[in-house]
Amino acid sequence: MSEFLGLAYFAEVPAVLFDVQRAGPSTGMPTRTQQSDLFATAYASHGDTKHVLLFPSTPKECFEMGAQAFDLADRLQTPVILLTDLDLGMNDNVSEPLEWDDSRQYDRGKVFSAEQLDAMTERFGRYVDMDNDGICYRTFPGTHPKKGAFFTRGTSRDEYAVYTEDGDVYVRNMERLLRKFETAKEYVPAPEITPAAETTSEGVLFFGTSADATREALDMLSGEGIHLDAMRIRAFPFSREVEDFIANHERVFVVEQNRDGQLRKLLIIECEIDPKKLALVRHYNGMPITARNISRQIRQLKGGATVTKIRRKVG
Amino acid sequence: MTYIRPNFRHPDLPSNELGYTRQEYEGSLSTLCAGCGHDSVSAAIIQACYEIAVPPHKVAKISGIGCSSKTPTYFLGQSHGFNSVHGRMPSVATGANLANRDMVYIGVSGDGDTASIGLGQFGHVARRNLNMLYIVENNGCYGLTKGQDSATADVGSASKKGVPNPYESIDLCTTALQMGATFVARSFSGDKQQLVPLIKAAISHSGFAFIDVISPCVTFNNNPQSTKGYEYVREHMAATGKMDFVPVRQEITAEYEPGYAREVTLHDGSVIHLYKQGNDFNTQDRNEAVRAIQNHKEKGEILTGLIYLDPDCSDFHELQSTVKKPLRDLNEDDLCPGGRALQAINANLR
Predict the structure, then answer these.
(1) Which of residues 284-303 of A touch B (CB under 8 A)?
(2) What class, spelled out in words, does domain A192-314 have in CATH?
(3) A2-90: which CATH topology?
(4) Closest by Cα among B144, B141, B143 to B153
(5) How large is the average pLDDT for residues B173-192?
(6) Domains (ranges, CATH) in chain B?
(7) Cβ-Cβ contacts under 8 Å, B55 against chain A
(8) pTM
(9) ipTM score of complex
(10) By the CB < 8 Å criterion, does A99 face chain B?
(11) Per-residue DSSP letters for A122-147?
(12) Taking the domains of chain A in order of start, what are their residue ranges?
């Protein structure tokens, strides 16, 4: 699968994948839940790759993001992976009624028609960045008898899809793909921010099926006088709002259901954040995360410094 | 040595019934070794497409990875092409064919691509009867990585610097037959008279058409100890019988050799004439085809020509009952049941 994801990233082929995450690694606990495929999907395949990820939280959001993923994949000409998990994918859930806007049009992205090809005076180039947003125009096979044909390949190629191993041309293309990933930030679902009832210097970040438990934990903690601004991340790449939220707080708790703190590390890598700013709240035994667990860990992290001091005196 | 090909063509160059010259079916200049069998296969594809007058832009070329998979660049330069992942050409071809059933799909693969890493996909594309031409350019070795034996190398066959291969070979025609392919043929890159009509018939066949073309690797596997070299194959070929292909459009005007033993009409109305020869057998009997391949192999012969054909099969789209319109052209009106239908689904879940 990773090999094809690398091909789709490099050759710029739209694709939509659903990953219902369960407890790994390997076959792991195949009937238990986890949020542990962020690393496997965000940079899937060899070489420098990055993929667009969406993180639905509810059945309704799975439906909406499912439709949106197809538009995004066509618009960005790259794979879009929806990361849900077994908690959401297999358990019964109460859902808001699903809604559909009948005036909605599919976004098929930048595809040249035969008429547009006829009107072109310059040579068609599959990988020419005409709009300077990193996204180029493509054609469907069989569109025009004389114009628009190109060769899709996983090998390096120039702007006209012709094979090349010219290092400068290769770098130019790789830089354009980065530009495209920047453009993706404008298209992916924005994070959902919920300010605390009182002004605070601390926040909490979470995604997917950690949402309900985290919100419940925030209620419990606010009753104890611990107030946290909350942000639910809904997509990768992380938008400006995600970076600003972290920048505007002294400490941010990152709630996730995996051993290694994959979201936290992805934030550190992609947004160049000081690791000390992000405190990991993790749970990964295969059972859905609970509010009691989250609130307990946050309480411990907040009081952790005091505990350490006492131990030093004793030792 | 120069690799520049002159652009000049004689102004009176003949054209096919669509007005295309043969030149318009050509691709870029090949970068394979001089004398490579694969270039002859490319030339045969060009000739076949020119003769059956398929519009170049209505053909899609798909390949995997390897020397053979490089060749789609060298034919049909006005067609879309896709050089995909090692052994995974069938899944890309399946996707493309599902998106637009109105195109001709030509898949080019190699013995390394198909018989090793791609063996799983090969079986499934055959049994699904995807409407495509699947050509294997079979040289018994991995030419792109200096000639290691592939899974189609015969027991005892040795490449230029190799030792005799100890493993049983995979016969791709037998595999295709057992997996349910509806058109199975074998040919030799050095036998254009046989290969061109086979390609024409395979393109016209509406279903999975497989041609295993023995295509010698001149650099690594064309020595006397190899059973995939030019000399060996020429001396050990046994044809099932000569065949003609008569496209439906040319039936009235073209002249064909009389005396054919059997006539097979394809879905699109084109006709295959089979001439009786020493090795003639019933090309519509799957079991007989498997036996014939095996019998010839035991005699040290390579059976070539049309081996099996089911002219009345249903292709993948028919088996799936998909709509006639290319799926990629379906829009909101065709696909989206709308908000009202969704409300009914919501109501059912309450």
Answers:
(1) none
(2) alpha beta
(3) Rossmann fold (3.40.50)
(4) B141
(5) 96
(6) 22-349 (3.40.50.970)
(7) 145
(8) 0.93
(9) 0.91
(10) yes
(11) SPP-TT--TTSSSPPPB--TTS-SSS
(12) 2-90, 114-187, 192-314
